[in-house]
Amino acid sequence: MTYPLPVLADARPAPVLRVAAPTLAATMPTAMLLVDYALAWKAMPTPELQTLAERLPADIVEASWPVRAAMAHGSVLRSVLLHQLPADHPGHTDWSELRRWLAAWQDEFVLGLIDWGIDSNMHYDKPPRDPEPTAAEIGSLSEPSVAMRRDAAAVLRSWNVPHPKERAGELLDAGTFRSALLDLLDAIWHGWLDRAWHDSLDAMRATVAATPSPPPGCGAAQWISLVTGLRPDEQYAAAAEAATELVVMPSPGLGRSLSLFADQTTWVLFTPRHTPTAQSAKADAGATARTGISVGRLAALAPTMHALGDRTRLAITLHLLENGPLTMQQLADALEVHQSTISRQVTALRRAGLVELRDDRRITVRRDAIRQTCQTLLTALD
Description:
Order of helices and strands: EHHHHHHHHHHHEHEEEHHEHHHHHEEH
Largest sheet: 6 strands, mixed
Radius of gyration: 24 Å
Oligomer: single chain
Distance between the termini: 56 Å
Strand order of the largest sheet: 1-3-5-4-6-2
Structural class: alpha/beta
Number of domains: 3
Number of helices: 20
Strand content: 5-15%
């Protein structure tokens, strides 16, 4: 008799799990990222961020277009600050000190930063390189690289920046880039983050101090739940479990959302809901945690929410859900509005992915899209 060979699984070291103190090196560029989302009318984890975006001076919004594109909303800048700002620098908690450090960047380093940001944009969603360039290794450039000159306009075009060819030159000038970046960050700080940072700093530090060491056998997703009190959604849980080092860090402005990103390290940002006690921090958070919605998943709701925010579009959707596929004329008769209005509003619903036009010219609702939106909102309210 023969016996099958045992199935062997690839082994890898257990991930390094830790919690880190709050730092403006992560919080400031994350606020920049969320503001850029808000400027595109994506759903925000807290209403204050949408209000901040609406109140930004128009000249700062216009001047910062190339900066926001090259920095991929702010994610490129976040990796750079986390890996370049010295560990003992006062800029981790003091914006004036962090700003002074940013303003002191030499032109050669700024060009290297822009080059790295453009390169990151060009390789987004492509197979990883070996070795993958890291934010800790940004080099200085005496002048814009060939790749910068070649790709700057393409990056701006991919981010829908108006007049990309004309504005590409702003990414080749270190002084223009640095000035626009600092003006944007100043507006974010004075418009919202100053208050939010100082109001939440004690609670964030208390959360870090009260977090116990990871229990034996703790997985990455369980570690996120233990520290944050939130269960990561499926996408974030999978990314966390694949990490070799996972760092959870408090940051203001995220509400019930989690923000996960990875460079050399996998980071998870969250906002504490209250100052924890040692007893609550040691509880089995994995069994009782609320579900945390990723920022990207929340932002993706914006087209649906905008589409359903109009009374006529909502009426069309509800009528289709109740009465099945209908023609434009049937909808116009049922809702007692002109057919041109129905046509215009159905077009908006189609763009949001909520309805489809069948071959027989009848409009049908995409129930799965509406169901997914409702489930995400219910999860956030849990």
